[in-house]
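Z., the sequence and structure:
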Amino acid sequence: MKKFFAAACAAAFLMSVGCSSIVRTADNTANTEGGESKAPVNEKAAYEPLNYREQVGLWLPYVRFPEYMQGKSEAEFRKAVAQIMEDAAADSVNTAYFHVRPNGDAYYASELFPKGTYLDGDYDPLEIVLEEAHKRGISVHGWINPLRLQTAEQMNNVPDSFIVKKWINAGEPYVKNVGGRWYLDPAYPETEELLRNSVREVLDNYDVDGIHIDDYFYPTTDPEFDRIAFETSGSGDLAQWRIENVNRFVKAMYDTVKAKDKRLVFGISPQGNIDADYNSQYADVRRWSSEEGFCDYIVPQIYFGFENENSPFLPTLNQWEELVDESKVSLIIGLAAYKLGREDKWAGEAAELEWINDPDIISKQIMEVKKSSADGYALYY
């Protein structure tokens, strides 16, 4: 499975040596004794969450599942995951964000959501990922897309017994179709409760070390998406009302994690452009980054080159540093290893070939992160 990593993986990760030794303990202090933390040897003992304030992270997204999950036996899947974790550990990765619920489907045993689209075997992907990661000292955070669900076509094949399908069949307003895909509407307490229950289901049944959500918040700025709920709310500011809706469910997910075990962590990975977080997705990243009670770590996706005309890497990194200044929230910088060797059409004419012309761009960005006040970085391949 080494092809899972981009060609620059080794060079990029080798620069991170030293980051993986700091472990967050129950009282949020650092423990560096022994150099790294391992999962408990005694399987009967209560599991002790394994987490690192200084992360070297790796996303394991569902878009890669066809490579090593779809059509694979349990043994084949385990072998592939073991190789991924072996390569990751060798390159100083200490945290993996595994996509447990990407599109309203579950890559774990769930009573709330149907079986994952790419899971055609009878094994439990999350259980195997946890086993293979923990034996190598790698923390695993269950990665959830909170609001994004199946496409309309996929939803036709979802059994009527699942709660989201019941809502659709009953014409409930908690689920909306946007551009041919279904999304949960965060305006309603029923949605918040489902998100709480979805986090609780994972935490109650698996020894994950945390929960991780990414940048799929509001799917549209169209006022029609939630017009009725807004009109009945009494609010006069649609943008601020939507921001509060997102804040409410984010805090609900955070509180659910902490109610299970305060040593578990909750992380958020918003898009890297702060203005766009507010203007297009109503994500209150300034509050999440500075105020306790919303997240333990934040991973802005600074997927921009140094020459990007709209959001150049270094100024954007500095903006995020300012957001977490004097905060207890850890800042982990998301880096776009997947862009290596590709044209960046959204970077502006002068920068669209930067990821092709500079094969060392990720290594350079890691150097800048290590010089900054950030607590680590994570790579998306």
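The longest strand covers residues 95-101. The chain is about 35% helix and 15% strand.

Let me know what you think.
H.
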